[in-house]
Design goal:
Elements: H1 7-25, E1 39-44, E2 47-68, E3 74-79, E4 86-87, E5 92-96, H2 99-134, H3 140-173, E6 175-177, E7 182-184, E8 194-195, E9 204-219, H4 220-232, E10 244-248, E11 259-264, E12 274-281, E13 293-310, E14 315-316, E15 322-327, E16 333-337, E17 339-344, E18 347-352, E19 359-363, E20 375-378
Helix pairs in contact: 2-3
């Protein structure tokens, strides 16, 4: 038989349960836990030598480029290259039908031989008349006519030689050779096409890709600021590395081979207010192609006493000015308004607002207020998490025990 719980026993159990719940939900004495002095992570600002660089947008440009055009008229008989391949200077690209030019060359060679034969007879006659006029065996007029015929014969030979040379050049132009070494693009004609001398459409284009140029643009105002900083001593020249240039590809990766600055243009573009800088890069594997968008990293100078601070230590106020907290000698927080120059990696280069030796708050500034007294602990950047192997199972989340 099931026992029957009395009313008094039920009431006692309910009261005990309520007391247990109350004891678990509130701290002893019913007062909130006391909060101690907040702790912030700080770094001591130290001056250091900072190499400054700038990234400039640019485009790759072929080191050499040549449009291949015919210099004689005719029908293309053969094309002697594969599109997209590398060709050497002087190699045959196209062969234009040379029949008419060969015939003209042979005709001019025959005309030269005829002129030379006629000249031989004329010279012998002039030499005989020279001896005869001396003894008055012929008249002076006959000798003058013979001398004039000799001169005309020599001129005919010279003209014939020029015609032979012209026809030889035209015959050679029937073979279209590569003017430079490089990579040739697509062909605009096929065998059987009619081409004309100096036509506007190129038969093909050859571009030399190793080395290759990179043209970048820099605002003229930036160049003026750089020169003023150099003149005032705020920046120092980087020495032999001033001409070295690093390259960032359009996918964000770094080009492995360094380049060298060739020259800076002397004219400012009136439309953009920028100056063109040209660098040359080795390109043995043809990774850089003409027209590719890149970013060039140029070394500007070295700031001897630069102040670098972590970016997470700097915030913005309501007006957008950069601010940071510094722990004073009395362990109280001071709010500083900074003047930053640029980012260097994951740090800010600070121009003013802090000094060497200041303890800069990096961790905990979200709860910081000016004048609050804090405890300090050295701050160190957290190491980057190790990359997870592909296909590895994700770690199960840890469940805290109650």
């Amino acid at each position: 038989m099931r026992p029957v719980m009395t009313y008094s026993a039920t009431l006692a159990a309910a009261v005990c349960a309520a007391c247990l719940l109350a004891a678990c939900g509130k701290p002893p004495g019913g007062a909130p836990p006391a909060q101690g002095m907040p702790t912030v992570g700080v770094v001591t600002v130290q001056p250091q030598s900072v190499a400054l660089s700038t990234e400039l947008p640019g485009r790759t440009v072929p080191y050499l480029i040549a449009d291949v055009r015919p210099q004689v008229n005719g029908i293309v008989k053969t094309r002697n290259f594969r599109e997209g391949s590398d060709v050497k200077a002087g190699s045959a690209l196209y062969q234009i039908d040379p029949a008419t030019y060969k015939a003209a060359y042979d005709s001019n060679v025959a005309a030269l031989a005829k002129a030379q034969a006629s000249l031989k007879t004329t010279r012998l006659k002039a030499e005989r008349y020279k001896e005869l006029v001396a003894i008055q065996a012929v008249s002076q007029q006959d000798y003058d006519d013979a001398a004039a015929s000799l001169g005309q014969g020599e001129a005919d030979v010279a003209s014939a030689k020029a015609n032979v040379e012209t026809s030889r050049i035209n015959l050679a132009y029937a073979r279209v050779d590569a003017p430079i070494s490089g990579r040739i693009g697509k062909s605009s004609v096929t065998p059987g096409a009619l081409v004309t001398a100096s036509q506007s459409t190129a038969l093909a284009t050859i571009q030399q890709l190793d080395p290759i140029y990179v043209d970048v643009t820099q605002p003229s105002a930036s160049l003026l600021r750089l020169r003023q900083a150099m003149a005032s001593g705020d920046l120092q020249k980087v020495g032999a590395n001033a001409a070295k240039v690093q390259l960032m590809l359009e996918d964000g990766s770094a080009y492995p081979l360094p380049g060298r600055l060739e020259f800076s243009d002397v004219t400012v573009d009136q439309n953009t207010g920028a100056i063109t800088l040209r660098a040359v890069f080795p390109n043995p594997d043809a990774v850089l192609l003409p027209g590719m968008y890149v970013r060039a990293v140029l070394q500007e100078g070295v700031k001897a006493q630069g102040l670098l601070v972590p970016q997470q230590a700097v915030t913005r106020d309501g007006t957008g000015k950069p601010t940071a907290y510094v722990v004073g000698s009395d362990s109280k927080l001071q709010r500083r308004v900074l003047e930053v120059d640029r980012t260097v990696g994951d740090q800010w280069l600070v121009r003013s607002g802090i000094q060497a030796g200041d303890q800069l708050v990096v961790d905990g500034q979200q709860r910081a207020t000016p004048g609050a007294q804090v405890k300090t602990t050295p701050w160190a950047p957290k190491p980057a998490p190790a990359p997870q192997a592909p296909g590895a199972p994700a770690s199960a989340p840890k469940i805290a025990a109650n």
